[in-house]
Structures are given as C-alpha cells and as structure tokens.
C-alpha cells in the first residue's frame, strides 16, 4: 500500500513569492494533518482535517497561510507571500481517528 | 510551560548501554501517548504506543505515570541502528510533539 505522498520534496524560492505544497494521504484515512518542523524541534501542528472539514486551524498563520482539502482526499497548503522565517520542513500526515499517524517525506522549503 | 517536554539531550552512549528518555506533559486529560522515532532528514515513524500498564517491545520498554504526567522510554542493549531522535507524542485532542531527544550510539 502506498504511503503518504508529498510534493515537491524540495523548494527554493525568494521571499515574497508564493509557494504551494501538495499531499495525498493513505487511502481510507479520514484525518489529515499539516505540520511545520524546524531544525532541532518536533513537528508543530498547523491544521487538521477530518474529511474535508478543518477542525483545528488555530496554529495556522492565516494572514499568509491557507489550506484546502477538497473532496476530503488530497490537500494543498499555500504560503503567500513567503517570508524568510518560513524556511522549514512541511510534513503531511494522515490517520484514522485517534490512531497512529503516518507521515509523508516532507517538503523542505528554503526562502532566500 | 511547553505542552510536551523532553530531556534535551543529546545522549551519546556506547553499544550495549541502557538509556532512558523522559517526557512530561501538561494536559491531565490527555488520552493516548506514543514514542516516535525520526532519523536524520527523514519523517517521524511510530516506535510504540504507551499503555497505562506499561509495555515492552523487544529491547524497548515504555511506561506511563498518569498521576505525575510522565512518560518514559527505556532502550536496553543499544545498537548502532538505534541512533536517531526520539519524539514523545501526546494526544490532547490533537497530537502534540515534544522537541525530541537525540541519541547517538557509538561503537
């Protein structure tokens, strides 16, 4: 069975440019998470979806970040405009409710 | 206070050593607990869940003390391949991750 798929794996952009990340969760997993991970830190939740509904987006910086999960399957996370401090690894994970999360390989974003 | 706090590490131990990691959490209503392992530049992967009665998986033993809001992970007979960062994860409605404790096992 395929795992969580993320693309791109790496992205380098200049500040103030927009960027988008894509995630396809494991089939049948209704819960999808986006995390941000800085070097030497654990993942920090940005947003959690139950099917197509965002049930927790309290940590998402809504002035520049947006996310969507149309049809309750794959999801896109967007940053516009990107800032230098947004450089990090963006991880997507999926699970059935309350159970083990499976992570994708992440997208490593560098903002210059 | 952080929601999930771990030993800052790093831990550098010889092969065969026993090493213990500690984790405390702030929300007494937390329902489930996990240890994840993350290799360098890789994604986190579940190592083991932590049950109230304590549980063991080979060389790994996890324990939970709800009264003290404390979780531990014990690794016996350390192998070189155990070198990684170990993340304590607490389900507080959402999964909250600790910052991780880095372990290096040396020959």
First-residue to last-residue Cα separation of chain A: 37 Å
SSE order of chain B: EEEEEEEEEEE
Described by the principal axes of the CA atoms, the overall outline of chain B is globular
Largest sheet of chain B: 6 strands, mixed
Radius of gyration of chain A: 13 Å
Q: What pair of chains forms the biggest interface?
A: A-B, 18 and 20 residues
Q: Average pLDDT across residues of chain A?
A: 93
Quote the distance from N terminus to C terminus of chain B: 37 Å
Low-confidence regions of chain A? none
The quaternary state of the protein chains shown equals: heterodimer
Largest sheet report of chain A: 7 strands, mixed
Mean pLDDT of chain B: 93
Residues in helix, % of chain A: under 10%
In helices, the fraction of residues of chain B equals under 10%
Low-confidence stretches of chain B: none
Give the class of chain A from helix and strand content and strand pairing.
mainly beta
Number of DSSP strand runs of chain A? 11
Question: Topology of this protein?
Answer:
The complex is a heterodimer of chains A (112) and B (107).
Chain A: E1 5-7, E2 10-13, E3 19-24, E4 31-37, E5 44-50, E6 53-56, E7 65-68, E8 75-79, E9 88-95, E10 102-103, E11 107-111
Chain B: E1 4-6, E2 11-14, E3 19-25, E4 32-38, E5 45-50, E6 55-57, E7 60-65, E8 70-75, E9 84-91, E10 95-97, E11 101-106
Parallel strand pairs in B: 2-11
Antiparallel strand pairs in B: 1-3, 3-8, 4-5, 4-9, 6-7, 7-8, 9-10, 9-11
């Amino acid at each position: 069975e395929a795992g969580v798929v993320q693309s791109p794996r790496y992205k380098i952009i200049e500040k103030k440019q927009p960027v988008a990340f894509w995630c396809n969760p494991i089939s049948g997993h209704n819960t999808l998470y986006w995390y941000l991970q800085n070097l030497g830190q654990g993942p920090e939740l940005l947003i959690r979806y139950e099917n197509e509904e965002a049930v927790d987006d309290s940590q998402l910086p809504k002035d520049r970040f947006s996310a969507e999960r149309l049809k309750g399957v794959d999801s896109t996370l967007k940053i516009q405009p990107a800032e230098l401090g947004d450089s990090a690894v963006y991880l997507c994970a999926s699970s059935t409710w309350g159970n083990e999360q499976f992570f994708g390989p992440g997208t490593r974003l560098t903002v210059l | 206070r952080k929601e999930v706090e771990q030993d800052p590490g790093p831990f550098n131990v010889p092969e065969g050593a026993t090493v213990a990691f500690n984790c405390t959490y702030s929300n007494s209503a937390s329902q489930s607990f996990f240890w994840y392992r993350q290799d360098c530049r890789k994604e986190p992967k579940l190592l083991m869940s932590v049950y109230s009665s304590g549980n063991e998986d080979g060389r790994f033993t996890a324990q939970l003390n709800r009264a003290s809001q404390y979780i531990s992970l014990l690794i016996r007979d350390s192998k070189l391949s155990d070198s990684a960062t170990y993340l304590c994860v607490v389900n507080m409605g959402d999964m909250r991750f600790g910052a991780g404790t880095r372990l290096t096992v040396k020959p």
